[in-house]
Specification:
It is a single chain. The chain has 606 residues and is of the alpha/beta class. The chain folds into three domains: 170 residues, Nucleotidyltransferase, domain 5; 146 residues, Nucleotidyltransferase, domain 5 (2-Layer Sandwich); 232 residues, DHBP synthase, CATH 3.90.870.20. It contains 20 helices and 21 strands. The longest helix has 29 residues.
Length: 606
């Protein structure tokens, strides 16, 4: 039984292919088109998934789409009618897309795929819940899904047991924790649906001085985690903006435009909405535990990518353990839709985990390239390289990292989800005092305040961080252990805002945020033996089992997919070396990249 799952036409379109209940392939469309958060029909992702399984589109038995477009259209119409005539301009802007695409989705799918079979439409939060529970290692668990909005639902909880997911309760649009966070993302000058990570990273530089204002005026957050938002402060139901003038008057002026320098207000706003989000998630988790009685919790939806809130839920020990879908946002809806059809529609049992951890194959579900394919490309590009046997390559790259070189690391299958997990990564020495600034400004071309994540050997994670379990998908935050922290120089404890950035706080300063936290990826020898071997070789040289891992891309660009993408990104940045499988390239030996003068404009870097 071959099932294709699809998510499309909002943001982060993706495709997933399952064969007899096994996840064979999954990928986001943006990785192929090079359009960040591409929302279009995922034709390239579909083509990859089908090819990876050795099939054609005509071999597909079922296609699953991740939500119900007609129910979503109902919500759109009812919302515009409720706010009429104020939302008329927004209505006129939205309708062409609906009449051209979303109302005729079945026709589009059949035409794109040349497919004549059955198309099924799980609800949006059913897809999220399925993606959270079915790949998890648990036989039964509570499920919590939280995002901006699906059809009507914005937050739901339920139970997963065996081959069934059951939603028990929900919160409906316009009341949405995801929309609340996006509103502050917009107000602090970042792009909605992509800048939320920046708000989370900015939060530790601020003080949560606006928490009471948010709770008093913006959101009525109850003890059971349910909430109701005061729509007098928002414009997303009827307008083309997230917030309105009343929101600005509450928080001291209009929204920040993207270009001006960040002020203390934006940092304090980020800190405040982060605290409120953590409060909401903690209360929801406690209520879900009380209602369901389950010992384990599965999370999905865009808010589940807030790893700081996830870490707080874990530390509060409301549940014995939690499992978070690595592609928790809309991309993961493609996977969830396929899983929902397999288990709910076909009533098929769950398969045994593909590893000791879960059923998701460590989320390495994208394309891979052979050494022969890579060498053919490098020769055609005239790029000097050396092919090195793996037993020599690993120690050589470990030595390069220890010498504070920045490495583009490309190997194996591309990751599914927003995090690079050691196959499409830029890596460096976490002990370096200058690496965070160097990588932000000269490699990633992004804001200096953005923290970097550590990859750490799973077997040594508790020796370095305040956590007692694995975090393979970089979706939990934990503090650096006390014994690895350094005394803060006298006088620097009084610093405010971005001035805190350059204070050295630990023996691994490049991955230690200003509040001593780090967004962890633990690396397991079973999941990724090559990446594990590299970090182990680095530890043997330095005594430190921690390196920097950031996604292999620059600001405004998706994570690289192909060797061509990786080489182009390598040449556009100040990376020192590129490792493509067994091939090593030194920047100093490369010819100038031709025909690439407009790349800064293309990725909004001017």
């Amino acid at each position: 039984m071959k099932i294709l799952g699809i998510s499309a036409f909002y943001h982060d379109s993706a495709a997933c292919l399952m064969v007899d209940g096994e996840i064979i392939a999954a990928a986001q469309e943006e990785r192929f088109t090079r359009k960040k958060h591409d929302h279009d029909f995922p034709r390239h992702a579909v083509a990859y998934c089908v090819k990876e399984a050795g099939l054609t589109n005509q071999d597909l038995d079922l296609v699953a789409f991740y939500d119900k477009p007609l129910l979503k259209f109902e919500r759109l119409l009812e919302t515009y009618l409720a706010f009429a005539p104020r939302g008329f301009n927004s209505f006129l802007k939205a309708m062409p897309l609906w009449t051209r695409q979303k109302l005729f989705l079945a026709d589009i799918i059949r035409k794109e795929l040349d497919y004549k079979g059955k198309i099924l439409y799980p609800e949006h939060h059913e897809s999220h819940a399925a993606s959270a529970f079915f790949p998890s290692p648990y036989e039964e668990a509570a499920i919590l899904t939280t995002d901006g909005v699906g059809e009507w639902t914005t937050t739901s909880y339920g139970i997963g047991r065996g081959n069934r997911v059951k939603i028990l309760a929900e919160i409906r649009f316009p009341h949405s924790l995801g929309m609340l966070y996006s509103a502050f993302t917009y107000f602090t000058g970042f792009r909605v649906n992509s800048g939320e990570y920046k708000v989370m990273g900015l939060a530790p530089y601020g003080e949560p001085k606006y928490v009471n204002d948010i709770l008093e005026h913006i959101i009525d957050l109850r003890e059971d985690g349910s909430f109701k938002m005061n729509m007098d402060f928002f414009d997303y139901c009827a307008g083309l903006k997230m917030t309105n003038g009343k929101f600005g008057r509450l928080f001291g002026g209009p929204a920040r435009q993207p270009e001006p320098k960040l002020t203390q207000r934006e940092m304090d706003l980020a800190a405040s909405v982060q605290v409120v989000t953590e409060m909401a998630m903690s209360r929801l988790a406690r209520h879900v535990r009380q209602v369901t009685g389950m010992r384990h919790l599965c999370l999905a939806g865009g808010v589940a990518l807030n790893c700081v809130a996830n870490g707080k839920v874990l530390r509060e020990k409301t549940f014995d353990d939690i499992w978070i879908q690595p592609a928790a946002g809309d991309a993961g809806g493609a996977l969830g839709a396929a899983l929902a059809v397999w288990h709910h529609y076909l009533d098929k049992p769950r398969l045994r985990p593909t590893s000791a951890r879960d059923r998701q194959r460590a989320s390495y579900l994208g394309p891979a390239f052979s050494n022969e394919e890579i060498e053919a490309f490098l020769k055609s590009a005239g790029a000097p390289y050396k092919r090195v046997p793996p037993d020599e390559l690993i120690p050589a790259v470990a030595e390069l990292i220890a010498s504070e070189n920045v490495i583009g690391w490309f190997q194996g299958r591309m990751e599914f989800g927003p995090r690079a997990l050691g196959n499409r990564s830029i890596i460096g020495d976490a002990r370096s005092r200058h690496m965070q600034t160097t990588m932000n400004l000269k490699i990633k071309f992004r804001e200096s305040f953005r923290p970097f994540a550590p990859s750490v050997l799973e077997e040594e994670v508790s020796d370095w961080f305040e956590i007692d379990r694995a975090s393979p998908y970089m979706l939990l935050v934990a503090d650096v252990r006390q014994e690895h922290r350094l005394p803060v120089p006298e006088g620097t404890e009084k610093l405010f805002g971005i001035d805190k950035l350059n204070v050295i706080r630990s023996s691994v300063p490049a991955i230690t945020h200003v509040d001593y936290s780090a967004r962890l990826q633990t690396v397991n020898a079973e999941d990724n033996p090559r990446y594990h071997a590299l970090i182990k070789a680095f530890r043997e040289r330095t005594g430190c089992p921690v390196i920097i891992n950031t996604s292999f891309n620059v600001r405004g660009e998706p994570i690289v997919c192909t060797p061509q993408d990786a080489y182009r990104c390598f040449m556009r940045t100040n990376m020192d070396y590129l490792v493509l499988n067994d091939c090593i390239l030194a920047k100093t030996e490369q010819p100038e990249l031709q025909g690439d003068s407009d790349w800064r404009k293309e990725f909004q870097l001017d």
